[in-house]
Amino acid sequence: MAGHSKWANIKFRKEKQDSKRGKLFTKLIREITVAASIGGADANANPRLRMALDKAWAANMTKDVIDRAIKRGVGGEDEANVEEINYEGYGPGGVAVMVECLSNNRNRTVSEVRHAFAKSGGNLGTNGSVSYLFASVGQIMVDPTPNTEKVIEIAIEAGANEVDTEADGSVVIETAPETFTAVKEALEKGGFTLSVAEISMVASTEVSLDAELSERVLKLIDVLEDLDDVQSVYTNAELAEEVMTQK
Predict the structure, then answer these.
(1) In this predicted structure, what is the pLDDT of residue 23?
(2) What is the edge-to-edge ordering of all strands in the sheet holding 134-142?
(3) E-strand spans in 9-149?
(4) For residue 214, what are the CA distances in angstroms to 19, 95, 164, 210, 233?
């Protein structure tokens, strides 16, 4: 978010996700199953599965649960009819919103997503209405370390596009999707702890909101994320500082 450090922005998003751990597990299991169904059970040959497994391990999901999800995907039974669907719309204050879903019932999903937008003062848009504002970007957040120079060196050598350091010693790194895994693995081999490592949709332009509109946008995001079929929600909202601090 413009006006905020990348650390604050990513940390804020992570804390919101962590607060919904039960819901997160359900979504991660579905993603693991679908990834295995599409690309097979070998994470080394299936980047999507590798990403899903990284998130599952970061969320402390047990190995038994992960293995069962992979077996279901490879068996092609439970998730055979699940498809990826993306929706685009506008939230309070005219902010752009992208919603990534996995669904076995397109009519149910679009109805629920449309209702969530309307309930929160937004509206569902057409395909392409806001997606042009977003690009896929690898984001990595390295926990505070006194050895930031080493982090920067490793990240750049592995192909990072941008590296920012924060006052507390944390490091925020952006990569192209193609170099994300290489940068992530290089940092892990270097012995650094990554609190966030994901490929996200990042907006090229942002809309600055006051506290009232920020609260309304957060309500829309919460309603969308509570839907079983919704995997991820992205927005170009620049939330008010006081709202981020309160959450």
Answers:
(1) 77
(2) 162-165, 171-175, 134-142, 194-203
(3) 83-90, 96-103, 123-124, 134-142
(4) 19, 10, 25, 6, 15
Residues whose CB is less than 8 angstroms from the CB of residue 44 and which lie 6 or more positions away in sequence, other chains included: 50
Rounded CA gap, 243 and 138, in Å? 26
pLDDT tens-digit profile of 34-67? Answer: 999 989 999 989 989 998 998 888 778 899 999 9
Q: What tokens appear for 247 in the block?
A: 């959450």
Identity at 29, one-letter amino acid code: I
Give the pLDDT confidence score for residue 58 in this predicted structure: 77
Report pTM.
0.84
CATH superfamily assigned to domain 6-75: Integrase, N-terminal zinc-binding domain (1.10.10.200)
Predicted local confidence at residue 113, as pLDDT: 98
**67-80 tens-digit pLDDT:** 999 998 888 665 55
**Local structure of residue 133 (DSSP, 8 states):** G
Token pair for residue 99? 């919603």
The pair of three-digit structure tokens given for residue 106, joined into one six-digit string: 């397109």
Contact 187, 141 (CB under 8 A): no
Question: Which are the contacts of 68, defined by CB distance < 8 A and separation ≥ 6?
Answer: none
| Chain segment 131-178, per-residue pLDDT in tens | 999 999 999 999 999 999 999 999 999 999 999 998 888 899 999 999
Class in CATH terms, 83-132+205-246: alpha beta
For residue 203, give the H/E element and its range: strand 194-203
Give the β-pairing of 237-238 and 207-208: parallel
Q: Which CATH class for the 133-203 domain?
A: alpha beta
- Torsion angles phi and psi, residue 201, rounded to 5: -95, 115
